[in-house]
Design goal:
Length: about 500
């Protein structure tokens, strides 16, 4: 049985570069191969060898090009996707789906069924987990939806399909149609021991040799998040961890095979267990791997001794979500942090000498113009090494999504045509022009423009550019092409 797992094109269609390899799909493919399904490959249809756009703050300005691609009969990206699927001729196709690029996932499924109507199409990913019913209702090209963690669910589904079983009711975690009814089997328990899974086998990637060393350095040391931010759909309440040896084995393999020296820990909150991180750092130091790495964490999960140890172990970048300069909005987001903690963390990052990025958001339901101005002032006060700001997008499965419905900003469901005809940053909005219920559409557009201009100017300051370059100097020495890429990115700003 031939299995092809596909990451649909999105950034590539708009000329952007999608960093890293598709971690989730490679993880699933690896588990399938380990358990006897050897003819399995991962097709990263979003990989772009020659990206022309680098300034991701301008991504939404290109969304119309993305929508137009579905109407262009001879669009080169979709032609390449069709050609690849036809050549591989799989029996089963698994397609990842996130809310933002849901249209591309549906279109990929359509291409699969056009080539071979008998091919089984399975969808999985964050959007599938919370919108399985909608997917099966609006997209006739999807046969099964995998919800939540996919390793065992997908394996059990593929095994049943290989054995030509007709009764799928015993497979936990899947949704499917039967006799015009949509059925949702119970969800399986969350995985506790991650060591049972082999680390992602990057050799299963088609065109493996085209990824750069940093793209291959994506590692996940834990799963889950115990926090409950109202804008986030990740709400497992439990975190599972890999052992140090398991993590180090992957790092050593990737370093030896791909020459990777800059790694990225994909964990939602890397330092949620400080003792574990300290032990891992000591292991990195003792093994003398001489790597650099970055991670995501929270301002309430770090202290000075831990940061100093992380720096010694090679940590050169930390990213933290701050979200708002308004304490009122922070409480509304259930972020679980205070401005005092943010200010303290900023000082600790600087003292440790670790480059840090602060992430902010505007346009959430119930936000006022004063709240937005507070965010701008707070960024100036904090003075992060780099600042990113995004406009809130309503994602199903979140508390804030339900609040948006109550405030009559959001609609519960979308049709297939909605996905093909609506700009991705307007998905699920009742009125695409209405971002916020307390700020007029015209005024919000002006505010957004002013804030983005401020952020662009802020990040372009020569001291900040120099500091980022110094933090990435190890990467530049190993791979000068990365320096050229970063230079082009700076020019694009």
């Amino acid at each position: 049985m031939k299995i092809l797992l596909i990451d649909p094109p999105f950034y590539r269609i708009m000329g952007f570069y999608n960093r890293y390899f598709p971690f989730g799909l490679v993880t699933l493919a690896t588990f399938l191969k380990k358990n006897g399904f050897h003819d399995v490959h991962v097709y990263d249809a979003d990989f772009n060898e020659q990206p022309g756009n680098i300034d991701y703050s301008q991504l939404s300005n290109k969304y119309q090009e993305y929508l137009n691609s579905f109407k262009e009969k001879n669009h080169p990206v979709w032609q390449d996707v069709e050609k690849t699927i036809f050549k591989e001729n799989p029996d089963i196709v698994g397609i990842s789906i996130w809310t933002t690029f849901a249209a591309a996932s549906f279109y990929t499924a359509k291409i699969v069924k056009k080539i071979n109507p008998e091919c089984t199409v399975v969808m999985g990913g964050p959007h599938a987990t919370v919108k399985a019913d909608e997917i099966l209702s609006i997209c006739p090209d999807v046969d099964y939806v995998v919800r939540g963690e996919g390793e065992y669910t997908l394996f059990n589904l593929v095994s049943a399909l290989e054995q030509k079983k007709s009764n799928m009711h015993s497979i936990a975690g899947i949704s499917f149609k039967k006799s015009n009814h949509i059925l949702h089997n119970p969800s399986p328990p969350l995985t506790v021991d991650l060591n049972q899974f082999p680390f992602p086998d990057r050799t299963l990637l088609m065109n493996e040799n085209k990824y750069n060393a940093e793209d291959m350095g994506l590692v996940m040391s834990s799963r889950g998040c115990p926090y409950s931010c109202t804008f986030c759909a990740t709400n497992t309440k439990r975190v599972s961890f890999r052992s140090d040896d398991h993590i180090l084995s992957e790092i050593e393999f990737v370093k030896d095979r791909y020459g990777s020296t800059q790694f990225t820990f994909k964990d939602d909150s890397f330092t949620v267990n400080p003792k574990r991180v300290a032990a891992l750092c000591n292991t990195l130091i003792n093994r003398k791997l001489h790597i650099s790495w970055e991670c995501n964490t929270r301002v309430n999960l770090i202290d000075e001794p831990l940061l100093q140890l992380m720096k010694k172990a090679g940590c050169n970048f930390i990213k933290v979500g701050i979200e708002s300069g308004s304490e009122r909005i922070l409480k509304k987001m259930n972020k679980g942090i205070s401005h005092a903690q943010v200010i303290k963390a900023a000082k600790l990052f600087r003292k440790a000498g670790i480059h840090w990025t602060g992430y902010f958001m505007l346009g959430v339901p119930g936000e006022t113009e004063e709240d937005i101005q507070k965010t701008v002032m707070f960024i100036s006060e904090l003075n992060p090494d780099f600042a990113c700001i995004g406009v809130y997008e309503p994602f199903p499965g979140t508390v804030m999504f339900e609040e948006g419905i109550e405030r009559e900003l959001i609609k519960q469901d979308m049709t297939l045509n909605d996905f093909y005809e609506t700009l991705p940053n307007h998905y699920y909005k009742k009125n695409p022009d209405r971002q916020n219920d307390l700020i007029s559409p015209e005024r919000f557009v002006r505010l957004e423009t002013e804030v983005r201009d401020f952020i662009r100017k802020y990040n372009r300051h020569y001291k900040k550019v120099l500091k980022m370059a110094c933090a990435r100097s190890v990467v530049y020495r190993k791979d000068p092409k990365v320096l050229w890429y970063d230079f082009k990115k700076f020019l694009s700003y």
